């Protein structure tokens, strides 16, 4: 089994890639310690005739991941070909799930894909400080909640945002 030390990021590659690119820029400029597997940086075209080879590559990438980040934009909940599949695979692999609301909401809202209903996950707004906090803290919380049989959507209290200065 591969050492799981990566962050797997899923998102709408057509509409929300700028947010993913911004996250990569944070990594370079802030020297943060999270790494990304870009689910959209594949050598093959994304068309229906190549769906299985793409999913095979995504499975391999997820096998090396310790956390799953979902960027939730306006159309994410309607993406069924890859994003829904990625979410379901992350759930199956019991990866800690961090849902990042691109609309700035601090908790789950109507843009969340249905496949996450009642699944253990944390919801945060898009931002470098809260993202780093979640990447450093949610995997431990997830493991504890999972051990206790807890499920559902979680969000951080306002005091966490206050401590982070956001």
TrEMBL record:
Pfam families: ThsB_TIR
Organism from which the protein derives: Enterococcus dongliensis
InterPro entries: ThsB__TIR-like_domain (IPR015032), ThsB_TIR-like_sf (IPR036490)
Residue stretches making up the Thoeris protein ThsB TIR-like domain: 8-106
Superkingdom, taxonomy of origin: Bacteria
Annotated transmembrane regions: none
Name this polypeptide is given: TIR domain-containing protein
